[in-house]
Amino acid sequence: MVLVAALALPACSKDSTGVPVQRDAEPHQGNVANAGAATAEAVARAVQADAATLWRRSGEGAGLTVRTESVTWRDGALGCPSSDRMYTQALVPGWRIVVTDGSRSATYHASRSGRWLLCPPERAQAPLPGSD
Hints:
Helices cover 17% and strands 31% of the residues. The chain is α+β, with helices and mostly antiparallel strands.
C-alpha cells in the first residue's frame, strides 16, 4: 500500500532556468511551485522546458518561440476538459501559451496559480471572448 501511495505523488524538479516545477503523474502538465500567484514568465519558462523535452530539443531556449496570451477559462478544466474528470465551476484567470519550433506547435493552458497542461487540439475549448 505504501508503494502505491509513493508512486501517486508528483515529482518536483527545476526547469532549465532554475524555476521549481512540480510534475504531475500525467505527462506534460505541472505546477510552477511558487507560493501564491504565478507569473506569466515563470509558467512560460516551465512550458517551454516541457516542449523542449517533448520534442527532444536541448540548450538554452532550444530554439523555441513562446507566445503568451492572457485569458479567462470558463472553469477549472482550463479549456481542456477530460471526460473522466469533474472541474470547479468558476471562472479561472490564466494564460494560453503557444510554443513553436518553426515546424510544429504545442498549445498549453495555464491558471494564474501556476497550474499548466499541454492541451491537445481535440480537447481544446476557447476561453471567454475578450478575456485579455
